[in-house]
Design brief:
By secondary structure, the chain is of the alpha/beta class. It contains 7 helices and 8 strands; from the N terminus they run βαβββααβααββαβα. The protein is 42% helix and 24% strand.
């Protein structure tokens, strides 16, 4: 029986929501953990890593996790995803910048799950920046459940 670990970093809850949706689309034993948790990664056959993009970059904790566990990740079935509000080439560039090439090449599945601006979870400054830069004045979600389901199928193929 294979064991899957989904480890994620989420600032305002979008990546956590996507990771939870992904878990519900995967079969077998699936554990979901924040990247802040102390997890024994060695016991898993499959590892999925997800993070969100803020100001064009993924969280430092995701980058650090990839560096710290690189050799183990290369030896496991691997999935990588990001949550971001960009689409197309811009989103792909953010994904490519988020993860080392060696892990991107090794990954069984990669995903761009869309993103969300949750004004209820943002501080005043974050709201001001989003309003100015993105022209968004309230909470919005562009999470793609279709992409999450397709990612899960690729992971299980």
């Amino acid at each position: 029986m294979s064991k899957t670990l989904i480890v994620y970093a989420s600032k305002h809850g979008c990546t956590e929501k996507c990771a939870t949706l992904l878990k519900s689309n995967l079969s077998g034993e699936v554990d979901l953990h924040s990247i802040k948790d102390k997890v024994s990664t060695e016991i898993y056959d499959t590892v999925v890593i997800g993070g969100s993009i803020h100001a064009g970059r993924i969280q430092k904790s995701v980058k650090d996790f990839c560096v710290r566990h690189h050799d183990l990740l290369i030896a496991r079935r691997l999935g990588l995803f990001i949550c971001c509000m960009e689409e197309g080439e811009k989103a792909q560039k953010q994904f490519d910048d988020a993860y080392p090439e060696s892990l991107r090449q090794h990954a069984k599945a990669t995903g761009l799950f869309g993103g969300a601006f949750d004004f209820d979870r943002m501080n005043f400054i974050e709201k001001k920046i989003i309003k100015k830069v993105a022209g968004v004045t309230g909470s919005i979600s562009k999470i793609s459940e279709t992409e999450i389901q397709a990612f899960a199928k690729r992971m299980q193929a």
